[in-house]
Amino acid sequence: MDTYEGDSDRSRDLIDKLEPEPKSKDLDLENQSRRLSHHHVTAIDSSSTSESVGRQIELESENTIKYRTCSWQKTAALLFSEYICLAIMSFPWSYSVLGLVPGLILTVFIAGVVLYTSLIVWRFCLRHPEVRDVCDIGQYLFWDSKIAWWATAVMFLLNNTFIQGLHCVVGSEYLNTMSGGAVCTVVFSLIVAITSFVFSLPRTFSALSRVATFSALFTFISVLLATIFIAVEPHPAGYPEKGDPIVLAIPAKGTSFITGMSAFLNISYTFIGQITLPSFIAEMKEPRDFWKSVTAVTIAEVIVFSLVGAVVYGYTGGQYVTAPAFGSLSNETYKKVSFSFMIPTIIFLGVLYASVSARFIFFRLFEGTRHKGNNTVVGWAAWAAILAVLWVLAWIIAEVIPFFSDLLSIMSSLFDSFFGFIFWGVAYIRMRSEDYGPDFYKTRGLRGWLGFLFNVFLIFVGIFFLGPGTYVSTIHSMILFLIPSSLTHLHFFLQASVMSVVRSYQSGTVAGIFSCASNAL
């Protein structure tokens, strides 16, 4: 298969300033016996990306539901709604732990790494326009292994369902804050899940992109208002119990590893969202324009995240900052007004991830049938049933793990290691090996070595993120006994996340499982 030309030439400078590339070899799905009924990848007969995409558009031209209809602007709206979200309001807390200077440096660095890996995702999808989601990529990357496909699918669905659950938690926080805890928190969480289910029903990203624009705009207004209100208030919530706000350029003396890693993972999780990118690209009319979408969003992320985090931390200090930062507002009216503008993204971001998961299941159940691309009773009933199951599971997760920052850290440790780093380091190496042979890093000179080493570094960062186990006393002792001391650091990230959860329960900041206690800010 020929690689992309024209506009996509500009992407080479964005990744590793490559010279024009030779024709890349497509991985022949039929020859690799990938066409299994439960997760086959549609073969494309065309010899170029444009022809392949054009063929897909032609095949669904007679359908009443058309999927490849997103422009790069609509895709940008989806990305804005995914990244410009409530997690922005955890940045002030992260900066209070890491110190303002390291926090800002990490923000820019992580944004750059995520942009780099996102462009690798894009380039891989251009070579293989038949790819529909990250699970297909997982099988491609790891030697056409069915085990790799299933492992990726499990992580993919768990990650997305956890995010849905997180938004049930945040939705109940919002309703408790607005109502003063008028109803049991479990009921509020269920209301959010039911509302989100209804908004999840549209079956194309093109339709969802309209709501995504609305969601991103209201989120921006929300964080802008919260930042302004915190700046104009005479003092933050809780003042003067802990003295005047203290702002540090570097971490405070005595900051624990667990607290520092939790802050770092909060920042990382907000940026890392490559898991959805293949699904978005698969519904673009012109996938070669995706770089415009992701570049625009990354620039906006760095500006908004850095300004909000720094300004809010500057006015609240380390003693009074909360996650999310709405809790730092002492004026209840300010808190409710600014938080109210966040309700669209509280609903929509969970909706977006539910839609990504549902189409993953739905496409594999109804591939090759009229139910996939037409308004049939069976098709809509199945789509609604899949969404219902996903939201019920998400609601249960929301009630079993009812906390905010610690949930972000757990998710980063478990899933972002693969979907944020490991997959894309492997993808880069696989693509270069296809183009230049397995010794590409030797034959391509300095650029070959730099690209190879940096992507190996990304793979090891992902492994370091993951960690081999949880932190309970028995398992921890077994790790210390079974694993050489030089490797025990690998479990620190997950250990940090889990111990942070334990401390939250011990300190009484978590209400409990299926609790009616208010979780209002």
UniProtKB/TrEMBL annotation:
Record's keyword annotation contains Cytoplasm: no
Native source species = Penicillium canariense
GO CC terms for this protein?
A: membrane
Domain (Amino acid transporter transmembrane): give its ranges.
69-466
**Positions of the UniProt region annotated as Disordered:** 1-29
Q: Does the record bear Transmembrane in its keywords?
A: yes
Q: Which UniProt keywords apply?
A: Membrane, Transmembrane, Transmembrane helix
Please report the name of this protein according to its UniProt entry.
Amino acid transporter transmembrane domain-containing protein
Q: Where in the cell is it found?
A: Membrane
